[in-house]
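Lab manual, section 2.4: Encoding a predicted structure.

Procedure: take the sequence of the chain (324 residues), apply the prediction step described in section 2.3, and record the output as structure tokens. A sample record is shown.
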Amino acid sequence: MIEPLTPLHRTQIRADLARTELQADTAEGWDVDTYRAVKARIRDARLLLTAVDRLTAHHEAALVHTDRLARRLAAARASTLRQTAEEWAAHCPQHTDAEDTWMDCPCWWVDELRRAATEAEPVFTMADGLDDQRAERLAAVSTHLDGVQPATDSALLDLAQFVAHRRDHEHPEGDDPYCDNLAAWSGERMGPVLRRLLDTELENARLRAELDARPTRDEVLREAAQQQRAEASAIHLTEPREANGMFRGADLLDPDAAYSTPEPLIVARYDTAIEPAPEEPPVLTIGAIAKDGRPVALFLDPDNRTKVARWLAPDTSPAPAIDA
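Recorded output:
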């Protein structure tokens, strides 16, 4: 079984490559070919590590996105089942006054639909919205409150008034039975208060997890930009002008591209030029390699080919005459 390449492993490999490169730069007696071969392997290894970093980040983002989609699909299914159940229940000839009944009593099936909707509903627990340490502490609090019901609004109002009485009344020197009675009365009612506080904390954690599962505005725009880029890529050979417009529109949608200036892509070398077949669109494809090792394809339609040819053509205009 192949062990995963963890971030720690990748850091160690990069450190080993740096040491190897330093030895290659400072070693004596190496011929030029050996030195260049070692440097090329070090460069290739670094490019592979960079690719692993990108793939790992993409994989982690895909896992989060997949989980979010699964929960959204489950919520949509539960909503559809529940809506169908309510529509059927509204047309029951035995348990409603509906005039447009069109079936026998569907209440058994309605109960089944509601049960299925409850099972399909995505469950958000406190573990989704709390870190492990906080979840463990709140679980420990819950074990001491078995059977305790949460405090009502009127009980909270009474407690607030008793706290004000203890704070504001004149405290005698020595014993203060009035304060002692208020403290004892309040202490006996702390269980329901803690239960209400705990329930509120857990509900807030669940709502935070549910909110985190929803896509943000930037994520929606980013997904729309990716879809538009995919559509543009599909037609860039047959309709390059329209595809370029779609690419520019995707950049305006993408929150990462619209408000930041991307680094320029620098081509280090050109490998091949592919002429189109007679039955294909007249687009010249140039294969190249970017400075960071990424493959790059340049697509030149006839207009752009003419421009490039004009730029590369030697200057044949006559030199200006020099007066004697």
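Check your result against the sample. Residues 275 and 284 are 5 Å apart (CA to CA).
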